[in-house]
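for the recovery benchmark. tokens below, seq after
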């Protein structure tokens, strides 16, 4: 049964990886990279401490105003996000060395078929660190902010990052699925820890 699942995983990878165009090649390489998303992380971090409000048609108020949030909650939440990132990265990489699944560009059954658009390093594949990181980040921040529009946006972004890892030939679908699940667990547990350490200082920012 396990061998059959691996076979289906390879077939799904080849189906996704074979769908390509010059436009999507560049777009998926952008989503797959880490550096372009640093501004997003900075905006999210700033949003823990400050709220930006835009006043339309209010003559007696400034058009744009910045308001401070609860500093205690912001600091605890920020530390929680950093720990979630660190745990996701460390444990996903440790899982790679335990499982030792070859990446598509090195797997004997896909090595001559896979389109690898990034450096084809000879390293292990399961689980995807990208998927673990982005889903951990999406989970903990969506629980912190509790905004429907943000939750939709951040999980859509996480899904695109996961899809890009298959598109560029760095991971099988099972790798990103496992990574996403691991990241979701880390994100949720770290959010509960944030709530635990903050419970002595109640705030509307935390939904119990």
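predicted aa per position
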């Amino acid at each position: 049964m396990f061998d059959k699942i691996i076979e289906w995983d390879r077939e799904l990878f080849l189906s996704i990886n074979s769908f390509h165009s010059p436009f999507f090649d560049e777009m998926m390489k952008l989503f797959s990279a880490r550096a372009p998303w640093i501004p997003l992380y900075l905006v999210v971090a700033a949003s823990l401490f400050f709220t930006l409000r835009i006043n339309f048609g209010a003559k007696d108020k400034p058009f744009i105003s910045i308001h401070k949030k609860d500093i205690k909650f912001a600091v605890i939440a920020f530390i929680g996000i950093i720990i979630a990132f660190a745990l996701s990265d460390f444990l996903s990489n440790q899982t790679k060395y335990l499982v030792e699944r070859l990446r598509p560009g090195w797997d004997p059954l896909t090595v001559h078929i896979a389109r690898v658009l990034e450096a084809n390093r000879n390293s292990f594949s399961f689980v995807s660190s990208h998927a673990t990181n982005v889903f951990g980040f999406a989970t903990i921040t969506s629980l912190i902010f509790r905004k429907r529009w943000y939750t939709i946006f951040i999980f859509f972004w996480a899904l695109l990052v996961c899809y890009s890892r298959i598109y560029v030939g760095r991971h099988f679908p099972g790798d990103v699925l496992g990574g996403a699940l691991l990241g979701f667990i880390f994100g949720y547990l770290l959010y509960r820890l944030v709530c635990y350490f903050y419970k002595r200082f109640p705030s509307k920012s935390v939904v119990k």
